Amino acid sequence: xxxxxxxxxxxxxxxxxxxxxxxxxxxxxxxxxxxxxxLARRTTCLSQLRQLSLSLRMYADDHEERLPRSQHSFFAFQxxxxxxxxxxxxxxxxxxxxxRDAFMSQGVFRCPEVRTNNYWSYGLNVYFELDxxxxxxxxxxxxxxxxxxxxxxxxxxxxxxxxxxxxxxxHF
Length: 172
Description:
5 helices; mainly alpha; elongated
């Protein structure tokens, strides 16, 4: 073997080693990037929940501490469901009928981690909309005003939903 052919072999071997090292590093880096992307989506979800909570509080401040209804009972009471009711707090003006679908698909109601085609990923605790007069049998302790919540720091306001419902039933 002459000197020229041995240097070609060593360059080929060197190139293969470099490619192998790059592939190994990429293999180690891709899962870390995937985890970072997932963490960013979860952070977005938490930020959206914070926005929704603040808009719900603003709505309650403007409506004598009353919370909006969910689709669970809004037909009976002739009120918009909570997502439409808090729209002025989120965007500064009420929604016209034609704007509702576009508003709901903007993203604040959908967590990017959730892979469904539903309008929302978050549901309002339906227990807030009950009052003694419109409660279920047995009249359990319910509230319609924020000031009547006995343990606000341990009360669930929103939860994840699946399907078309915009509410959860967290009775605690």
